[in-house]
Amino acid sequence: MRKTLIELPELTLKALFENSLNSYADRPALQFVDGETMTYAMLGKKVEEIQEMLAAYDVKPGDRVALYSENMPNWVAVYFAVTTMGAVIVPILPDFHISEAMHIAIHAECKAAFISQKLFETMLDESQPPHMNLLVILDTLHILEKLSIPSKMSKVIQKGEEQFSKAMEKMNKGKKEESETAIKEEDMAAIIYTSGTTGSSKGVMLSHRNLTFDATAAQKVVDIYPEDRFLSVLPLAHTFECTVGMLIPILNGASIHYIQKAPTPTVLIKAMATVKPDFMLTVPLIIEKIYKNKILPNFQKNAIIRTLYAIPFVRKKLNKIAGKKLIETFGGNIRFFGIGGAGVSPTVEAFLREAEFPYCIGYGLTETAPFLAGTNPEHTKYKAIGPVIPGTKLELREQNEEGIGTLWAKGPNIMMGYYKDPEKTAEVMDEDGWFNTEDIGYIDEDGYFFMSGRAKNIIVGASGENIYPEQIEATINAHKLVADSLVFDNEGVLTARIFLDYDKLDEFFGVRQKSETQTRAKVEEILEEIRTEVNASVSTFSRIKKVVEQREEFIKTPTKKIKRYLYV
Question: Topology of domain 458-566, per CATH?
Answer without folding.
Answer: GMP Synthetase; Chain A, domain 3 (3.30.300)
